[in-house]
Specification:
This protein is mainly α. The protein has one domain: Amino acid/polyamine transporter I (Up-down Bundle), CATH 1.20.1740.10. It is built from 16 helices and no strands. Helix 7 packs across helix 8, helix 7 packs antiparallel against helix 14 and helix 9 runs antiparallel to helix 14.
């Protein structure tokens, strides 16, 4: 892998792998934060989100490069000091919210695919996640790598067929209209919430050698992360406005295409992606707990891992069943934004920019 590729593209590609997966697979987030304001506003909103996220990425990457901090604890300590733990609390809450969204989505998709009750589908996903976590790090990595290839191939086929089938409706749907404050605010909210992953993936800043590297990597990060959202939006636009009320919008598209093999392929891809993303999140939390205990000369036993995983999954199922997918995404992500606004956006970007700007002309910034 060339040095240029590592410096300029790897940061955005890593962020994409963390953010895309289950978040775009159902189409619910794209619909909730962008398309519900209208097709034209959705496209403008995605541009706004992309630009904001690229700017945020530059500040975070340059701060990490400048101060040589490549894990989320050290990174948060640079701009938050002793309050760094607030990020961890927010991150853990985000994991629980995401697990609940995965469970709710699995209930919708599996019920549609197998004709089983939604709760059964949700529990089936949680069992699959628990089994994957039990397999350990190396096997999880292999399974996630293989499934990611299958997932993106399946969605590439979907995008091509959907645009071929209904693409002629896109121009008539995307008519210029005034952009509302709500649409702009929603785009900003989504960009801010996505910043929650920056401390977790900040290790990618290891590849950066100069401020120019951080700037270019930041510029590329936004388009790399949100180009899948743009593709999915183009797939959903022909079905606007009916698509906005669908719990799993991508299922609405599949019903319109009426291609049985593609329907089955995408549903299987979604279910598998929900499982591997959930396993990756839960395994990451387990590893963080294990590292903390190791620093205190205590080992996290297999029973502790199983006990924590079980408790997290049971709570997630309860939340998914009580709240539902649409409300989880609409309400949970917006409340999550305000939490991460307090511990990421507000402290990191004004302070982070000031910290890198204060030494803008110093020789160490070269």
């Amino acid at each position: 892998m060339s040095g240029t590729f590592k410096r300029y593209l790897v940061p955005g590609l890593v962020m994409r792998s963390v953010l895309v997966g289950a978040t775009y697979s159902t189409g619910r987030e794209v619909t909730e934060f962008f398309l519900k304001y209208g097709p034209f506003s959705a496209l403008i909103g995605l541009v706004i989100t992309t630009v904001l996220f690229s700017g945020f990425c530059f500040v975070a990457l340059e701060l990490a490069r400048r101060y040589k901090v490549f894990d989320y604890k050290s990174f948060c300590e640079v701009y938050m000091g002793r309050l760094w733990f607030l990020y961890e609390l927010g991150f853990l809450s985000g994991v629980m919210l995401t697990l609940s969204i995965l469970g709710a989505a699995a209930g919708e998709v599996s019920g549609d695919l197998f004709g089983i009750p939604h709760l059964v589908g949700t529990w089936a996903l949680m069992v699959a996640i628990a089994l994957l976590v039990y397999l350990g790090t190396s096997r999880i990595e292999k399974i996630m790598s293989v499934w990611s290839i299958f997932f993106y191939v399946a969605y590439a086929v979907l995008v091509v067929l959907a645009v071929y089938h209904s693409g002629s409706k896109i121009p008539e749907k995307v008519t210029p209209a005034p952009i509302t404050i709500g649409a702009v605010g929603s785009a900003a909210v989504y960009a801010g919430f996505c910043c929650a992953i920056l401390p977790v993936v900040i290790f990618v800043a290891r590849h950066l050698e100069t401020r120019k590297d951080a700037a270019i990597a930041g510029i590329f990060s936004g388009p790399l992360v949100f180009s899948p959202a743009l593709a999915l939006t183009l797939v959903l636009i022909p079905y606007y406005p009916d698509i906005t009320s669908a719990p799993v919008p991508i299922m609405h598209v599949l019903d319109g295409l009426q291609v049985r093999w593609l329907v089955a392929l995408i549903k299987v891809a979604i279910l598998g992606e929900l499982a591997v993303v959930g396993a990756g999140l839960l395994h990451g939390v387990n590893e963080r707990i294990a590292k903390t205990l190791e620093e205190r000369n205590t080992r996290m036993s297999a029973s502790w891992r199983a006990g924590f995983s079980l408790a997290a999954l049971v709570f997630s199922v309860f939340l998914a069943e009580r709240v539902g997918l649409i409300k989880l995404v609409a309400t949970g992500f917006r409340y999550g934004f305000w939490a991460f606004l307090a511990v990421i956006v507000l402290p990191l970007f004004p302070r982070g920019y000031a910290m890198i700007a204060s030494r803008w002309n110093s020789r160490t910034a070269s």
